[in-house]
Amino acid sequence: MVLITWRLFLLWPVLTLFGFFSLLQLISLGLYIKNAFLHGDLHEKVYMDQPPGYVVPGQEHLVCRLRKALYGLKQSPRAWFDRFSAVVLAYGFHRSTFDHSVFVRHSSTGSIVLIVYVDDIIISGSDSNGIAALKQYLGQQFHTKDFGHLRYFLGIEVARSSQGLFLSQRKYVLDLLTETGLLGTRPSDTPMDSSVKLAGDTGDFFSDIGRYRRLVGKLIYLTVTRPDITYAVGVVSQFMHAPRQPHFVAVCRILQYLKRAPGRGLFYRPSSSLSVAGFNDADWAGNTTDRRSTSGYCTFVGGNLVTWHSKKQTVVARSSAEAEYRAMAHTASEMLWVQSLLQDFGFSVSTPMRMFCDNQAAIFIANNPVFHERTKHIEVDCHFIRDLLLRKQLVTPYVRSEDQLGDILTKPLARPSFLRLSAMLDMFDLYAPA
What are the boundaries of each domain within the chain? Predict the structure, then answer.
């Protein structure tokens, strides 16, 4: 499976809504840099042939040395980001050491957060005069296009009210259904049949491999705001090298599920608390082909979902406790990243962080100072988790299996459990009829 977290965009609600700015004062703008890669300065020696139509007569054997980046060069993305970073840092911003695409500036008049994705920029904060001055400054340095208040960003729709922010990809879903001819299909209640186990050697080969890969690729991008399809998309993405007919049927099942609620997305509420919590789970030996387990976790800040992850483990776990403990280690690492990011911006994070687990054996191993034969193969993870417990950065409370939010990221669920956990993730359809 693949990592289904687009941290860049989901950082924006985290850094703007959680109690530091009033929603009535919050300003969020979209900005676009035209011909961004052409602004990059090359520090390596790169040569190119003289372009057609501009060959100097008598000097056809000469080549041109590039001083600026061009589209198509491998160095162009890095050169552009180095130039952009230098411009923003010179204006008084500082770059996060935990996510280099995020810049922040605090002043007596307010705070400004800037997030960049290649040539698309989000500017958000409570300092309206500072944001206006920043836009003017960037316009002097680059050729920019101002999209105004943020409503649409790279296929993600933003709806704002006094209660919070809602992110969805409704238009993206409808376009995908139209492209595949499934706009009028019968909707499904869940993205994956809980009674079906996909294997790599069952069924006839799917004739159009390119179509399968394109569909799965578009579904992967859709998981930016749809954690409810994360597991199903992760499963079908495992067969992109040689898809078979049952795999394509599973992809169509995901599209049928999207048809039921194309406008479903994530809702972020303001909160005065920066408490970090995580839920982790593992489906022990769930893969029938190689018997590897699937890890899944989701993390919350102030009660709002910010990151999630679903991935097949790299080794075979010999017990459910081992599989769960490996998932705990990944969850703890993600929670530390979220905590460090918030602290990097000067926000105090309440500790200890809570990491909920539904496996009593894994919790006991985490709190047991004695190592023995049953834990030596995961000893590094044991030391990592136990060190966090001793420093009181982390606690591992028990949660009932029916309330374990990580279940939705590790296995296909029946309709009642799936709908209940989706609601607990604060997912709903803003466009559903009242």
Answer: 25-39+73-161, 162-434
